[in-house]
Amino acid sequence: MSIEESMLAGCAAPTAPSGNALMAAADGDADEATLAHLRTCPQCSSHVAELRAMQARLRRRLYRLYCPASDILVDYCQGLLDPYQRAAVAHHTAICPHCAAELVLMERASPLADALGYTAPSFVIMPLP
Ligand SMILES: [Zn+2]
Ligand SMILES: [Zn+2]
Hints:
Radius of gyration: 22 Å
Shape: elongated
Bound molecules: zinc ion
Low-confidence stretches: none
Distance between the termini: 43 Å
Order of helices and strands: HHHHHHHH
Helix content: over 70%
């Protein structure tokens, strides 16, 4: 039994949406019939949640393809980039939630990073909330 079959197992409703309908639901544009079914069917709605998580992971990976390297972000934080690079990074972080989040973490961590001579990766020096 494939993963998909095991996730769909248990939904024997005559109104069970097709795989495509569930995909559309994960994208946020399900039709009324699918939405009505999802409200009453835990199997199908958990399948949609699973699809959505998968898409989020994929999207994150795609984003990272176009992202500046971490050390560029570090230089940006410390004001070491030339004006052209700086503008490019500023433009990117304005549209990229992942790099923006990374910058926030770096900015928060930088006093500690300076004390350490900045060699530790950011996930180690990330302060607790
Ligand atoms: Zn169902
Ligand atoms: Zn980015």
